[in-house]
Amino acid sequence: MLLGFKKDVQRIGLYYKEFNIPVKTIQADSLRSDNVRIFIDEPIEVNLDRLMTGNTNDPVFGQINTTLYAQFLPPLIRAKLKRENVSLDRVTLTLMHDYYFYGDTTVESSHTFQVKKISRQGLSRDINFFTKSEVTVQETPIGEATWTFNPDSIRKHITLNNDKNTNNNVFDSLYFELDRKFGQELLDSVLTIKDTLDVEQVEKFLRVFRGISVVPTSSNLVMGFNPGNIKSKVTVYYFYIEGGQAKRGKYVFTFGVPYCVSYTNINYNRSGTNLSNVTSKYTDYDVGDGYSYIQSGTGLFFQAGFNRIL
């Protein structure tokens, strides 16, 4: 350990002292990927506002598959309606892109995703979720959508969103029409909530609606979404009778970052790549592609390239 300090007003002295400190290595096979509030040193906090879903085949690192999981909150603003006067119209899911894309972004491509309900234990604030954490979902999807990636449009939208004129911003999203039975369940749950939404009622809601997963079924891009964006939401549209007239309303369920739990599962397959034989931790590997690789304790690969030696 090196200690540097000011010896007097004229000189800076540099001294060292050896400390006998027990060395411990903490090994993990994945990294935390949940979007919850992490208190580092109050009042500082860190929110990880990114979810990813999609697949890609990296020429170096092999097949990479990602799936997002997320809870959502009951609506904070609710109209006081009688159950007998309300009927479901439709239910939708919107996820706002944060313009992170990993894969071949040079060509136009189509990507299909399914929405599935989380079952069993589900998500919980009492559990840390990592890139390898697995959550059980119901097999039957409650929604499906196809989104087209156009590199020219995406570049144009990023440019518009980064200029100083906020009036020309363009927002891209992944949009689903969800199963009506699921929508009816959400509508019924809202209509039973008391006038004041307290913590007890939120926890009760989360025990019933454990969350959703967005699973790629046909994709060659990993893409990022922002659950903290107010436009990322589940929306239940309904009809109601007021004063003898039919009217239309909606309930909005947000992903509640950082109160609600959401995370990204990431798995990979190195088969058929130069890295397939990189298995031992903390060992240098020269696989003949001009790079040296080290398998770290986290299960991720670190890559170092030396193109110029001075």
Description:
The protein is mainly beta. The chain has one domain. Helix content is 11%, strand content 41%. The chain has 3 helices and 18 strands. It has helices at 151-162, 180-191, 199-208; strands spanning 2-6, 12-16, 38-41, 44-46, 51-58, 62-70, 86-103, 109-117, 143-149, 173-177, 212-218, 221-225, 233-242, 245-254, 262-269, 284-286, 291-295, 301-305. It is globular, with a radius of gyration of 25 Å.
Give me the secondary-structure topology:
Elements: E1 2-6, E2 12-16, E3 38-41, E4 44-46, E5 51-58, E6 62-70, E7 86-103, E8 109-117, E9 143-149, H1 151-162, E10 173-177, H2 180-191, H3 199-208, E11 212-218, E12 221-225, E13 233-242, E14 245-254, E15 262-269, E16 284-286, E17 291-295, E18 301-305
Antiparallel strand pairs: 1-2, 3-4, 5-6, 5-12, 6-11, 6-15, 7-10, 7-12, 7-13, 8-9, 8-11, 13-14, 16-17, 17-18
| Structural class based on helices, strands and sheet pairing | mainly beta
The count of domains is 1
Mean pLDDT comes to: 81
Strand content: 35-45%
How can the largest sheet be summarized?
11 strands, antiparallel
Looking at this protein, list some descriptive labels:
310 residues; mainly beta; eleven-stranded antiparallel β-sheet; 3 helices; 18 strands; globular; disordered N terminus
